[in-house]
Design goal:
Keywords: Plasmid, Signal. By secondary structure, this protein is α+β, with helices and mostly antiparallel strands. The protein is built from 6 helices and 6 strands. Helix 2 crosses helix 3.
């Protein structure tokens, strides 16, 4: 009887851990939220995966294409507005600090927070949203709209 209770307890703990592990269902929910609020989730999925690869590779030129300009960032406690992709090169390591890199590279798609402003990486260090590329918003890209390093 004691062994049966131990076995049952172990099975319950294992089932609880299995059911609480993020998986495909969370990704499907994120896709649904993105579709309802921001547009095509496939755009976000592919852009986020590509961004994570480029940030991990420290490819500052490629990363600059993921940002919606102008963007205001904090560099060493000072606010700085970057007007175009070329402006990022000089400040890349000051903006994409090890903490920001870790947040981006380790962000699990199924754990993204989504609202009408966009998708949030980590605890709000980076935000990405759908950005219109033309007046009618017929062409849209997922781009970084905020980078908020911890000061």
């Amino acid at each position: 009887m004691t062994q049966s209770l131990s076995t049952l307890a172990a099975l319950l703990v294992g089932a609880t851990l299995f059911l609480s592990t993020p998986g495909y269902a969370d990704e499907a929910e994120v896709d649904q939220q993105i579709e309802a609020l921001l547009g095509d989730p496939r755009t976000f999925r592919s852009t986020i995966a590509d961004l994570q690869r480029r940030v991990a590779d420290e490819d500052s030129i490629a990363v600059s294409a993921f940002i919606s300009y102008p963007i205001t960032v904090s560099i060493n406690g000072m606010r700085k507005t970057l007007r175009q992709a070329e402006d990022l090169e000089e400040y890349y390591s000051d903006i994409f600090t090890p903490d920001i890199v870790e947040v981006i590279v380790n962000q699990d798609y199924g754990s993204l927070f989504v609202n009408s402003d966009g998708v949030m990486f980590g605890n709000g260090e980076v935000w990405m949203s759908a950005v219109c590329l033309d007046d009618g918003c017929a062409e849209v890209e997922a781009q970084i709209i905020a980078i908020q390093g911890v000061e």
